[in-house]
Amino acid sequence: MKAIAYYQSLPADHPEALLDVQLDAPSPGPHDLLVEVRAISVNPVDTKIRLNVAPEHGAAKVLGWDAAGVVKAVGSEVTLFQPGDQVFYAGAIDRAGANSELHLVDERIAGPMPTSLSFAEAAALPLTAITAWELLFERLQIAEGSADQGQSLLIVGAAGGVGSILTQLARRLTGLTVIGTASRPQTQAWVRELGAHHVIDHSKPLSQELARIGVGQVTHVASLTQTDQHYAQLIECLQPQGRLALIDDPLQPLDVMQLKRKSLSLHWELMFTRSLYQTNDMIEQHRLLQRVSGLVDSGVIRTTLGEHFGRIDAANLRRAHALLESGKAKGKIVLEGF
Questions:
Q1: pLDDT tens figures, 299-313
Q2: What gap in Å lies between CA 237 and CA 211, rounded to an integer?
Q3: Where does the Enoyl reductase (ER) domain start and stop, copy by copy (predicted)?
Q4: 17: number of CA atoms within 13 Å, CB side?
């Protein structure tokens, strides 16, 4: 089968950073779906692993943790899907990625693809939707419902992949006042289009930007990028007993003692945790994606596809990695077809 892989960690603009390769087709385990991949999208995790994780024993390492496709075969214990079903999913970080014609995924972390979306539009959603959903409803413990509880959410990096879906979920499914950050006119417009009540510029002091829109402090913060750079400002912006959730990898250690005076709580979100540890509630990601699929088909939320980079090959994936690393991507970068 065709796949895109790497053999050594190289800059995205290096011609061997990602390569077109031929690999043996995988066989499904008991809980696995064998999926014919039709479209993929690219996430920061792809670039981080490419740069920092060397393949073992010279073997080809395949990235890719967002896919939409068609089930070709199922394992002996599969009950949720059958061949011919269209699915979308993010997969597991400790297994081979989805940048290949055929891919294995545990049925408990896959969902039925929205019927109203193309494969490319659907591939933009799984990883970011799972991350945003778990962050909002499980880590920050926001209640669903439109009632105004006097709560507010500051989303730092609202124009990115996770921010684009988190903004929609927070605005459409909760009573939160949603404040997104973006630093360029086009990304600020994108965040407003996704439903944020207010948009502020994270290249300026956040407390000053909040004051500009008449907000003193917020009850919740979702820090999706550059947490170490904004950390002191985030603490200042949070109300006493507020909650701070983050998903990025700060380059500098965070001093948790700074949270004590306000009794602030800190929450990490990693959507791969359930699959990494085979948790008892692993099937919640299937249910979550099923819910997201229904919300898309009913018009409550929409795909966050930002740019379509053409077919799935090494050259296009290198371009996608380079754009992600530049920090200038809007929404999700998607590739489609082999």
A1: 999 999 989 999 999
A2: 10
A3: 16-335
A4: 21
